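sorry for the late reply, my laptop died twice this morning and i had to redo everyting from scratch. anyway the thing you sent over, i finally got around to it. pasting the sequence first so we're on the same page, its 136 residues, then the predicted structure underneath. double check i copied it right bc i was rushing
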Amino acid sequence: MRRRLAMVLALGVLATLGLVYLSQNDPEGGALFPQCVFKKVTGFHCAGCGSTRAAHAMMHFDLETAFRKNSLLVVTFPLLLVGIVMEGSAWLWGERYRGPRVRLPGFWAWAVPVVIFGFWILRNVPVWPFELLAPR
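ok and here's the structure:
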């Protein structure tokens, strides 16, 4: 338990440092952030393109800008956060954990990748309304 707690604390400190850096440095302002390799190679947007800029906007409570950068991230962020907290708690406490767990039924296990892949494809279609999905 101590080793797991130390790991959770270390990951928490690293995540906090990363979030502080992200909140203080605008990804569009030349800060040190990785570029999308898929976009560089193909010229198309991947499903994650704009996520860093969207996260920066969400940290400043600018949901309109965040939604324009990556709407899928904004919509799924609350679910991701709850899932990370639940599964992290279960991992930390091990067999003593009695809280809820993230379990995707068969349909959702297939639907989630289909939605992500569909978003990836549709955001590259240069026709209204799909062009609204591209980061802008």
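The radius of gyration is 18 Å.
thats about all i looked at so far, will dig more tmrw
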